[in-house]
Amino acid sequence: MDKVKKTDAEWRTTLSPEQFNILRNHATERPFTGPHQELGIAGTYVCAGCGLPLFESASKFDAGCGWPSFSEKLDPENVAETVDKTHGMVRTEVHCARCDGHLGHVFDDGPQPTGLRYCINGHSLKLAKK
């Protein structure tokens, strides 16, 4: 996969301030404040930074946590994982494999059959409706 590399100045021309802060600075939006809280809209959720397909609406569920949650990745190659040791915790961060944009974190308290909950910042996503 070809990586998308831009300077901060270039990212700022294509991302909103919220998107830039989350995708490029690893920030987190406050719960229940970001877009894509609703369920039932068919489509593919893509990276707001580069458009790479990340999650399908069929895997979206209401975790009650205040962020869009998904039980599985659309393509394992598109969502990368790293260890996040910030804030006195050890978590698994997920980011876009093409542009390295911060998406959120994955936890092992999701529904079966995967048991995973990809807890994703709404501003890091765009919905391509079907």
From TrEMBL:
Molecular function terms, GO-annotated: peptide-methionine (R)-S-oxide reductase activity; zinc ion binding
A Gene Ontology biological process term: response to oxidative stress
Keyword Metal-binding: yes
Catalytic activity: L-methionyl-[protein] + [thioredoxin]-disulfide + H2O = L-methionyl-(R)-S-oxide-[protein] + [thioredoxin]-dithiol
Protein's recorded name: Peptide methionine sulfoxide reductase MsrB
EC numbers on record: 1.8.4.12
Entry keyword set: Metal-binding, Oxidoreductase, Zinc
Residues in the signal sequence: none
Residues annotated as catalytic: 119 (nucleophile)
Binding site for Zn(2+): 47, 50, 96, 99
Cofactor details (free text): Binds 1 zinc ion per subunit. The zinc ion is important for the structural integrity of the protein.
GO cellular component terms listed in the entry, alphabetical order: cytoplasm
InterPro entries, sorted: Met_Sox_Rdtase_MsrB (IPR028427), Met_Sox_Rdtase_MsrB_dom (IPR002579), Mss4-like_sf (IPR011057)
Keyword Hydrolase included in the entry's annotation: no
Cofactor(s) for this UniProt protein: Zn(2+)
Family indicated by similarity: Belongs to the MsrB Met sulfoxide reductase family.
Segments forming domain MsrB: 8-130
Domain of life: Bacteria
A Pfam entry, by short name: SelR
